[in-house]
User: Fold these one by one.
Assistant:
Number 1:
Amino acid sequence: MELDKQTLLQMYRNMLRIRYFEERLAEESAQGNIPGLLHLYVGEEAVAVGACTPLRKEDYITSTHRGHGHCIAKGGELRRMMAELFAKETGYCKGRGGSMHIAAPDIGIVGCSAIAGAGIPIAAGVGLSAKMRGTDQVCVSFFGDGASNTGAFHEGMNLAAVWKLPVIYVLENNMYAISVSASKSTKLRNISDRAGAYGMFSAVADGMDVLSVYQAVSEAVARARRGEGPTIVECKTYRFRGHHEGDPKKGETYRTKEEMQEWEKRDAIQKLADKLVKDGQASQAELDKIKQETIKEVADAVTFAKESPSPRPEDVSSYLFMS
Amino acid sequence: MSENRQLDFAEAIREAIRQEMKRDKTVFVLGEDVGKFGGIFGCTKGLQEEFGEERIRDTPISETAIIGAAVGAAVTGMHPIAELEFMDFIGCGMDQVFNQMAKIRYMFGGSMNVPVVLRTPCGSRYPVACGAAHHSQSLEAWFIHVPGLKVAVPSTPYDAKGLLISAIRGQDPVLFVEHKLLYYAKRMPKLREPYPTLISQVPEEPYTIPFGKADIKRPGEDITLIATMMMVHKALRVAEDLAKTGVSVEVVDPRTLVPFDKETITNSVKKTGRVVVASEDAKTGGVAAEIATTIMEEAFDYLDAPVRRVSAMDLPIPYAPALESTVVPQEHHIKDAILQLIDQK
């Protein structure tokens, strides 16, 4: 599968946008500028970007408590993302949702849920809606290895399969549900083997390689658009930071330093940069320019967030009901 | 409109669904046994033949997936009506109700609506059938406790049709609770004879009844009797009976618990000074507790006696008829409560 230079550079840029956005968030959080919890996605950028690149603006995603990367990859503006995290009125959810609850229906982000697995049956409903409305829209539903052991996983997968819904279930297997190793939660080496039990398709991708994820998800998207039903795409990945920013020593209490270092060597952003330069598709200067632009974009988002107004207490009751 | 069109509750529900499905292609039904079987209480009977399997969708036994799929469809332009066979099963899909359906609009800053109508039958079927612990509960109090859900508790076929059409046309998530004894009237003389109000005149044309508007089912002067769903019909019998002894009972039906019509209820209390709240859910932390507290806050100075609750005992619903009718409030419980209050001068 040949990708044009523009798409490859956009993937590189989007992975960097996620990385720099989150690294800046960690700094702002350490300085006490972020009022809520942060579950950072650093290390897993290839999954969000590889999975969202095949999507159109009108396609959908559901996301999780670790959702910044998904939202940015689907086209979320850094300013409005950052403002939401700073609990400002200019954020995507006007400061009502925060880090774990971002939605942007105009670009197909039908919402992040902080309940593990909750997005799985919701994504089935999104797919059902697309099918019943007669569009060829698809929904990518992100969730982790932890969520794969919920009842919602079973019910949602089964429904999506039996109704042949246009859903791509992107299972981000980062090997840990907070601190518990996936090996202690499931007998399966590949959780996506469960797809067979539901009569659906599955694929395993290298979650540290954006092109591997892109390829697997592209095939699943094409199948879904043809009306051939859902796929589980399991992406083997790793979070470089702790479960959340309060996790001591980035999670060294339950995983070894050696393991963490091994995975960090497989950094997907560096991997793509090396490939682009080696294949002659981009010069180092071009990549450096993207880096500088991204750093500026993040800085601009932080300035925007800091200068934005907070929600007013007198508006606290707005938005509960439409009428 | 035909002059004397008498429908029972299940017929009214079915008519509302059918008319709204004809009006709006985005309205569809999903749930267990809603297709050929016509729903466990017959509310979707014949609709699959008329609208097809796409729009009257039988589902697996998967409450989480039924409600979750309804939520996902609702936030992307559809208007699903999800049916849960018994309210007792709602726990199986609870996360989708209280964390997703209820919270999406607010936590996403009003950026999307969740127009799901979640219909579910509640309540004891004594004396028709003994459902015991897992087929008899009234759990509506759980849901008034969760901000973000509207909760309808209709009592008559007329109200059911108008409220259901309002729910379907609205953009907010609605838990639509239907007491099982209400369904049976035409099929069961044993219910129809003591409770003629179970059947009502229902216009054929679609109409709406606004949420948050209580209905005075019987005007009276001496005491306010607030009741929901099946308790309304029991209350009307008691009121009829007490009228013969010179006690004038005003029966007020809130019709929706969220939003709640404080004004109509407060006005009634100001007039009578005495209140009984009759609700079939368990007493502790129940609907009657909430209504009683609201009256205390809004109209304390007008009360001549403490508010009395008539609710189920704090027990699982037992199987044996003699036990079930002890746990679930019956007419004599309501009557005793009223007489005790009237005696308090």
Number 2:
Amino acid sequence: MDDEKVLIIMTSGPDTPRRCATPFFFATLGVAMEYEVSMFFTIDGTLLLKKGVAENVYPKEGGKPVSDFLQDALDAGVKIFACTASTELHDINPDTDMIDDIKMVGGAWMWQEAEDCETVLTF
Amino acid sequence: MANINGCNLPDDLYYYIEKHVWAKPMDDGTVRVGMTSVAGKLAGGKLAGATIKRKAVGKEIAQGKSLATIESSKYVGPVPAPITGTLLHGNDKLAADPNLAINDPYGEGWIAEMQPTDWEGEKGTLATGAEGLAAYQTKLEADGVSCD
């Protein structure tokens, strides 16, 4: 186990906008604390990584879109992974529909990463 | 105290300009570190937290690596170490009032104290005095930053 590694599992998506900013904020904060932070998107979370979606999800009316929080996390160095199986749930083509800068992985990746991390958070 | 682009910057501190943090050698050989008024401005002017990473206390932190974090409702970011050294302790007063780091950044709002690994060797990498402040001014103007 690596006490400097953190995994954030993101299951919330566009149907629950208010749940879609804080996980990115916590991820960015984790990097600022010198943790190595990965985010794993599955269930509805995967939709936030579909091209054109995060720009139109607003956690707070009149506030920043989720895409801004996502970009902050990427800029900080958060590594972002999406569950390939969950793309099927939403009829997303993992080869063409997803944003850049992320990696598609299988469910077993999540188990192995979770084993390596001291802290795992789920949203 | 110099005023550069509206930012208060004492000329007796040592600045790690890239990261907007300062270092001040103390009489006992330790070094006190904190954020500059520029960092406070960039953070949005009002903090919800200024936190030392507990596990980092007692460990050596390399110059530029995070020794604390600051967060507001709209911003989160590291407070990088201006020098390499062992993190001795954070400023306990920040727990009750994190905004000391912004309202009194060179006084009560210091962030942490470190035991420098090689102050004499490393202080040359920091900006200080009139020459250092001129370099800081160049950086602020290049970045278009003003504290007004």
Number 3:
Amino acid sequence: MAMEGTISAEHLVKVYDGKIRAVDDVSFEVKAGEVFGFLGPNGAGKTTTVSMLSAGLRPTSGRAVIDGLEVGADPEEVKRRIGVIFQETTADGDLTGLENLEIAAGCYGIPVAEGRARAKVLIEQMQLTEAADRYAKTYSGGMRRRLELAVGLVHNPRVLFLDEPTLGLDPQGRAGFWDFIQKLKKENGMTVFVTTHYLDEADGMCDRIAIIDHGKIVATGTPNELKDRVGGDVVTLKTGTGAAEITTLLQGLPGVHSIQHTDGSYRAKVQSGETFVPLAVDTATRAGVGVTGVTVKRPSLDEVFLDFTGREYREEEGPNATDRAVMMNRVRGALRR
Amino acid sequence: MLRELAALTRREYLKLARNPQAIFTSLLLPLLYLLLFGQGFHISLTSFSLPGAPPPTPATIAAFNLAYFRGAPDYYSYFAAGMVGFVAVTATLFIGANVIFDKLFGIFKRTRGTPAPSAAVFGSRLIAGATQPIAYAFFVLGLALVFAHVPGLAGLTVTAPITVVSVLEIVVAIVLLSLMFATLFLTFGILLEVPQTYFAAVNLLNLPVLLTSDALYPWGSMPQWLRNVSQYNPVSLAVNVIRETLFGSSAYPYGPGIYLLGLLAWTVVLIGIAIFFVRRALRPLE
């Protein structure tokens, strides 16, 4: 019983084409009733991980246990216990919202009358009552995401997987969607596993976060724990290009944890930004380096990401090697057939 | 399993009902064949009579019809029965394409994300996919019968006594032929990912299957080798049943039951092959 609603990934590995390690030895635990964020840029391995956890993809090695059941041993039973909201739209545009839900309920073996009743409740909960009898293809982006969520909840799952659920939504749509998720957590105690590349979403909505990059988990913790690990304030000093290197000088100032020098700027993790800035500007000026700009920030998840991966976080990245490999794999598969 | 099958079948019928254009265009093809192709090729022994020559005797006409049209009274009647088989095949051509488009639009992924068994996923599409050709086949049969009563048009003339059993034989032949080709093309749709590959494969198969049958050619004008090939063709087997039922059995070496058995064997074999491939393609974990 202690396993109810939990998610466990143990050394999950997925290798495409025998050489592309899309997911590389990923392990974590999600407690029942938790909203767990899986944060990473496009192509980091988030969707592949969700596919392995939600009985859609066989791992190359490792194992996943959902709600006490090993995914590889009984994938169909796992599918009964989980809801999955895919990254792409999967509701049938030629059916009405209500029909989409009724048919989804039937796919879980729910009797017709019960499925219809459940569909009506969900339509109401998702504020789609007015549009219930309209074809899904006439829905706005936000309405379609809410319909997707309703479809994923039609069988009362214990665990809900959301793969980039707010992709393509405007800020208002994203906020509205997250309100529903928070409500679900509060009212049903459902375990929610959500992948996102929006840092603000992960920061504000998740109880705990795992940061994944290049298929590996680089950090796990609550948003505050992760920020605390970065420590103090983050000060960025902009200098002219070609200016002399002053990393060593800055490093010697009091309260400095670390200094990174990139592209004509210095990023310093310091005890106190207020104390550090005048000293740093003075030091730079004495060394003949003009300071053209200064920013002081409390650490955000951007900083956390930068700290753990050594590079800036970009929300919109093009297809990476994994995506290309998967695409090529599909094309080759199709040609072989 | 039954609930999942019922839900998914309902979806297929809802989609079909919401696309009347597809139904209309599917009916247009056999209609054009019946109205143009069949009328243009409509021949009987009297078509060949020279001016001034004595008209052929009923015995000569009967012998000609037996040799050329396997007992049908004229080409149009022979052809109309063949068109029933032709339509049962052509109406199944796009059933697999719908699966591919559902994959491209993410709808198939949703279904695969549920615990609905692969038999329900396949079966629902097969039921809905086979219903259309069955309906179209009876539409062709009915229309050809009506044409026989329209002045200036050739139509289907039935010369054998129709009984409940013979009607049932026609129904079983059409159902088996439709099921068989629906299974085949649906399997293509499940296995393939790209629409162009699907259409290329279907076209590659469709023409040889139809052109090695005796659905459209007069039996008497077919070379022996083509007759030999066509006797194993499932379309010919179904058409034989229909023609025997409508025009009598004297031109056929076997009764309808044997042809139905042959058709059943084809259907069972194809369904067996489909189960093998579809179970692999739709296994719970990819």
Number 4:
Amino acid sequence: MEFHQFTLKELQMGLREKKFSSVELTNHFIKRARNSDLNAFITITDDLAIEQAKKADSLIAIGQLNDLTGIPYAHKDIFCTLGVKTSAGSKILDPFISPYDATVSEKLNDSNAVMLGKANMDELAMGSGNENSFYGPVKNPWNHSKIPGGSSGGSAAAVAAKISPFSTGTDTGGSIRQPASLCGITGLKPTYGRVSRYGMIAYASSLDQAGPMTQTAEDAAIVLKTIAGFDKKDSTSADKAVPDYEKSLNNSLEGLKIGIPQEYFSEGLEDGVKQNVLDAIKEFEALGATVKEVSLPHSKFAIPAYYIIAPCECSSNLSRLDGVRYGYRCESPKDLSDLYIRSRSEGFGEEVKRRIMIGSFALSAGYYDAYYLKALKSRRLISNDFQEAFKEVDVIMGPVSPSTAWDIGSKKDPVSNYLSDIYTLSVNLAGLPAMSIPAGLSNNMPVGLHIIGNYWTEERLLNIAHQFQNQTDWHKKSPKGVD
Amino acid sequence: MSLDNKEVSQIAYLSRLQVEENSLESITADLNNILNLVEQLSELDTDSVEPMSHPLNMTQRLREDEVTEKDQSDLFQNIAPKTGKSHYLVPTVIE
């Protein structure tokens, strides 16, 4: 078997038993990254990776190793990386060589993981198809004419094409789970506050959350353990102990109560996706779970609430990108106003500009109450729905995306892209943890199962996903040509 | 609520963005489509609902007011588009 056919867990064992070295692994994956035409990377950091791999090998030689020591990964280009370009998929940050590490980067460095490079993404994490990147679209490894999902599209494609044993992602409205679903990999968006946001380029600060993208739930458990935890540099990070997520993976699902929201199976859901999701849920019944219908009556309001709240937060966050202290500056500005306006207009793409303008409008005098405040109140109703449901069930299951991956270039208008986020947005609004795991194929394209838990139940979600993966082999399916 | 071209130009200016004359029409249409979408919220009765600005029910953490940052101005100014004498430079603001 070749290195890329192993899971992260298997690579970890192999390194521990000294069956191969991190330098060998790293060279193998760099070669795969270099030979790939998916456009999954914005930057490949060969030299740095080899340097990190050599260090990892020397640590392994003296028995000083952590969970991820010597394991290569693709790092979403939204995480600041000291001395390495951190563009967030935007022209405005194309010249930005970060002078510091994000906490997630620091934790991965401390565990001596090996960064292969920075993964492509929708500009500033705004998009559902990775078509909004300044560096061009990413191709779905299952069908190169289709989108990989977004915004963590490069991260998802890299894992699905076995260019990288794992990736990091961030999820503001579904940006880990939706590309995981459309590329047939495992993705986990943790509870808001579980993983530090320090050094993660901000989109919508009350929704952004980082998490792992992997082949299996077991691998996700290993990565989450490394990146999670309290960080005094992030005032919204939670001061809660990080459990050993691997420990409970093998717990029984006997007695697990699964809720199926009727609202997630209504119009707009593709038949093939629906069938795969329902079949997957049946597997859980065989594992001892019971299934009951629940209602999340405000589900449909997640789209309008999100597309007010996220743009409002982004219009404020992105005001820092002004061409003065870092990033792109226009040629020969004639005055300060011209510097701001042209640097931003030339530096931002269309979708980012739209969201900034919607945010500026919704926060402006006279409209604040009607839009922003109304959306925050609606957010409370959406969040309350989940708490009502969790009185009756342990987890909620449904589809991640109403369809499989669509053709690159086929969704031209912004609103049709927004509608594809229908099942993922409410989870971010509520701040809950949720996963996408491979649950089938529809017309040869992957379908993900959405598993939503109550706050701080990542351990249970990973356990549930792992038990499913013990019974099924959807997570082992690879795109054609990736063997 | 529907925006006209003039209002969109004003919003663009507030956002420090420039909308080209020839794309003003299509941007106005896009923004109006988005506003139509979010208009759905008016179906909800939210009079007695407390706004939720943050997902976790937590209180703001406080810390001692002490200096924790070291001076890294050279490092930060290294990546700036234009600097001089330890300042960030922009076009002349006051003659």
